[in-house]
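Design request, tokens follow.
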């Protein structure tokens, strides 16, 4: 039988010195919370939890009922497990300080909210640091996401590569299905919201996208970062959410979207840049700050940076 998530973590203790029992407990609580969220997502239409919650969050975005429910489930689990000293959520303005030291967790409880009501893949993204959340992404202790797609999958890096687990509906366990995820060096897919093309700040980006079209790339864009990154991780290619005239720092948030996804992509052999510097080098100044995101296979990201430098 495939290795269950908890057993996998205990088996990794020797290889990964910082993987202590507290971190294992914390990761298990996150896994447990996402299983509960998966259960709600899969029957949301029967629970009356689709649609808007009728409020706007700190991001100025309309909150969906499932955003709120996922947030509450994660907060509950993290507070009860007592191993998270600080908790940051996309849905909460300030950082919740539970104790002075220990692990900090930043999460996007439900990513891809615009896709909830049309039954398209969404997810949960999380990032774990030690003691403070305002650290560069390269200092992450662990990062991962759960994608609620045809399968519910948990994708995790503890700093030594990337592994993926598939939720087994019979046992209710996340079981190891992909021991080592490696990003293809080069792909054939690009992923960007081209509706914003004329608003993109960088002329070089328009020229890069035209170059990919001449190279016969195909376009895939789900509109849930978790789904677009998951496909990029497994198939290669490039995902971009650039700065534009409206979102001058891009739309995606550093702490709980760009940074954990950059960690996973680089741990799997890919590359992640803001267009000016590696995402993992950005030291956060504000909890909900946004950064432009260019991530995926090395060949495409380096080519994109080349076009941007010849603006
Ligand atoms: P969230 O639902 O957590 O607010 O995130 C949505 C984000 C991200 O998932 C996705 O890549 C991006 O919004 C899509 O934005 P556009 O609809 O502007 O393309
Ligand atoms: Mn999101
Ligand atoms: Mn969200």
């Amino acid at each position: 039988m495939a290795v269950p998530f908890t057993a996998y973590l205990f088996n990794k203790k020797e290889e990964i010195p910082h993987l202590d029992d507290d971190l294992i407990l914390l990761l298990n609580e996150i896994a447990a919370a996402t299983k509960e969220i998966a259960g709600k997502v899969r029957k949301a239409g029967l629970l009356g939890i689709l649609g808007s919650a009728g409020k706007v969050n700190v991001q100025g975005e309309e909150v969906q009922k499932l955003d709120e429910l996922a947030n509450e489930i994660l907060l509950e689990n993290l507070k009860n497990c007592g191993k998270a000293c600080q908790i940051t959520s996309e849905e909460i303005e300030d950082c919740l300080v539970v104790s002075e030291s220990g692990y900090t967790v930043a999460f996007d409880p439900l990513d891809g909210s615009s896709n909830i009501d049309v039954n398209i893949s969404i997810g949960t993204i999380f990032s774990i640091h030690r003691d403070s959340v305002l650290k560069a992404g390269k200092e992450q202790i662990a990062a991962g996401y759960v994608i609620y797609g045809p399968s519910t999958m948990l994708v995790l890096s503890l700093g030594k590569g990337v592994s993926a687990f598939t939720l087994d509906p019979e046992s209710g366990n996340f079981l190891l299905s992909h021991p080592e995820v490696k990003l293809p060096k080069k792909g054939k897919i690009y992923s960007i919201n081209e509706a914003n093309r004329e608003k993109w700040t960088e002329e070089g980006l328009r020229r890069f996208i035209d170059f990919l079209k001449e190279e016969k790339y195909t376009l895939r864009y789900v509109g849930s970062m978790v789904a677009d990154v998951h496909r990029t991780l497994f198939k290669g290619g490039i995902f971009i959410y650039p700065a534009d005239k409206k979102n001058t720092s891009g739309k995606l948030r550093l702490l709980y979207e760009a940074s954990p996804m950059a960690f996973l992509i680089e741990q799997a052999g890919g590359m992640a840049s803001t267009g000016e510097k590696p995402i993992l080098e950005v030291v956060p100044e504000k909890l909900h700050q946004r950064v432009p995101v260019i991530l995926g296979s090395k060949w495409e990201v380096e080519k994109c940076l080349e076009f941007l430098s010849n603006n």
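Comment from the thread starter after seeing the answer: thanks! The two ends are 53 Å apart (CA to CA).
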